[in-house]
Amino acid sequence: MSEVFVRVALDHPLPTLFDYRCDSSEPPAVGTLVSVPFGKRHVVGLICEVVAHSDVPAERLRNVEKVCTTCPPVSEHWLALAAFAADYYQRGLGEVALPALPQSLRDASRWARLFAPQEHYRLTPEGRTALPDALPARATALRKLAQALADADCLAGADARALHPKALATLDAWQTQGWVMLEVIDAAAVTAAAVLPDAPAPALPTLTGEQADAVEAIRDADGFAPFLLHGVTGSGKTEVYLRALAGILAARPDAQALVLVPEINLTPQFEAAFRARFAALDASAIVTLHSGLAEGERARNWFAAHTGRARIVLGTRLAVLASLPKLAIIVVDEEHDPAYKQQEGLRYSARDLAIYRAKQLGVPVVLGSATPSLESWWQADQGRYKRLTLSRRAVADAALPSVRLIDLEDERRRGRASIEGLSGPLIAALKTRLERGEQSLVFLNRRGYAPQLACDACGWVAGCPRCSAYVVLHKPERALRCHHCGWESRIPRSCPECGNVDIAPLGRGTQRVEETLAGAVPGARVLRIDADSTRRKGSAQALFSDVHAGEVDILVGTQMIAKGHDFRRVSLVGVLNADTALFSHDFRASERLFAQLMQVSGRAGRAGLPGEVLVQTRYPRHALYHALGRHDYVGFANATLAERRDAHLPPFVYQALLRAEGRTLEAALAFLQQAAAELAQIPAAGRVTVYDAVPLTIVKVMHVHRAQLLVESASRAALQATLRAWQPLLRALKGVLRWSLEVDPLDI
């Protein structure tokens, strides 16, 4: 038995590897998971180096306790990707690599049974129809188990036991009834996904000339090739993705594809489209990866990708760090979406990591959007990305919707009545669509019933006791809720300051609009989709299914309904309260608003029905609305980029944000001032601009006060060098509860 030493990455803030002694007849490979002692704890780490000697004194070296043999090592390419992310985003390698793995892999006690053959249960066709009616109405736990079976393609026995204490006995009884079938799945099978020879080839739609050119360019790409697919809403970007992937997967039988979407609620329709198109592949060849999956299902899907069995991986931002040893193409749909930027822990951009990963592997990456981010548009202007344009909708008789601005000030001057913020022209248009049997969509990016509850006698406004923010009124739940910390209370009967019983909601949220529409448009079936109505697993998919089935006349919602969805019957879009973003302190606010309005406008008129968009505004002469009316993204992007260049803002400079959290605002600001003083001593800081420390917009959250310090430079290399030298100095400072450093921040 020979003695070797391994250097292990642990999920720890220190940016270093930890040496351990490993007694083994065969040294473990780089990329293998191991269980090691760390202080008084036993933790899982990832081997990054195997060496013959260690610089650590022998008496301080500790032994590796356990080596994971059930999961093959991650590849060197994957470790290099994690190392790049750690270096660029100023984190330890272990802080990137370990959280990117499924939770069950980070628990050594579960390794032995993790990917062993397991019993899985699947509903039979008879069970899908008979089981719901056979269960007693009050059998909540049994209904929960039945719903889990219906939601999942197959349910592992371990996951079933977590839902019901007698799950296995119940499932055996259901199997006897013919409602459930039992399968034994060997998750450790490392074969490529099977091809089903008898699967019929789906009928393919005819491509437009622009679509055909885009598909050909992507298929013919040699090595790393970044494409910016700029297609108007409804232009068939998804069809381009499908054709490009089909060509690449057919050329290489073992190739894998990664498709990223910004939000979980978009994965079902993408998965349905990919399964229909790639029906010849085994069901396990297409998997999803996102935070909404049960832990067991997420681990199995990750393992299928890691072993190469999954040919296509659909996921949200966390999927960009999935292990894909045969990755041949990456697609980032709605690449402009802020949801691709992680806002906690490792604050990475999934879009940017996707581009780096494609470059690292020498494969094409496709960034698709009707409203590309200004950073990507500028890269295309510089020739670094190849721009592919889809200027027309894919359906022959589907034109872009007309946009009409409703001047709220003019409506008021003319004495035209509105109903709870809904103007007369908008209500009339909704009634007309109802009479025609068409669907309408009303967009308001503010959930809840009203953003404030106030007393007009003394001026009291309901605020959160833990945050420097107002609480939001949620009328159906009869609650006041803070959207920052989750604090909740009952609605008071009277003003707590003066006793006035006539307290009233101020402003409007989606709940209030839903209530108003029920009375303003009699006979309309109104449905609300937002974060409150889709809290339960599977609820969003069920609600969207109702919309597609034509069981809804007016859909009310937030940004959840604004992008990616193909509503075939929607001919009218109404936009409420868009003006709030026009004069924001955030320089990106106008870009986000324009993208949001372009995306939600694109839900109208997709299947040949004439589409119309009505935007209620008090500023109808604003340049942003004029560009929206012309569907002129190019003009808006070029004008905004010129403003950014003159103001020395991204993408023409590079930024980093130091945040501090303290028990008092003074403590947080004092820490940042010390940090700025330390930064001034770094030689590379001469090319970096440091701004004054300021409080965050929401200063206090959960009794913790927050402040920020912005640094920027015209040179990315100079900024990165400064941040690397700054990190150890920051660790030596005291006085705050927490601090974090974010590279390329989106929210400042």
UniProtKB/TrEMBL annotation:
Its EC number is 5.6.2.4. Binds 2 zinc ions per subunit. InterPro entries: DEAD/DEAH_box_helicase_dom (IPR011545), Helicase_ATP-bd (IPR014001), Helicase_C-like (IPR001650), P-loop_NTPase (IPR027417), PriA (IPR005259), PriA_3primeBD (IPR041222), PriA_3primeBD_sf (IPR042115), PriA_C (IPR041236). SMART domains: DEXDc, HELICc. Zn(2+) 1 binds at C455, C458, C495, C498. The keyword Zinc applies. It catalyses: ATP + H2O = ADP + phosphate + H(+); Couples ATP hydrolysis with the unwinding of duplex DNA by translocating in the 3'-5' direction. The keyword tRNA processing does not apply. Its cofactor is Zn(2+). Component of the replication restart primosome. Initiates the restart of stalled replication forks, which reloads the replicative helicase on sites other than the origin of replication. Recognizes and binds to abandoned replication forks and remodels them to uncover a helicase loading site. Promotes assembly of the primosome at these replication forks. Belongs to the helicase family. PriA subfamily. NCBIfam families: priA, PRK05580.1-4. HAMAP family: PriA. This is Replication restart protein PriA. It comes from Paraburkholderia translucens.
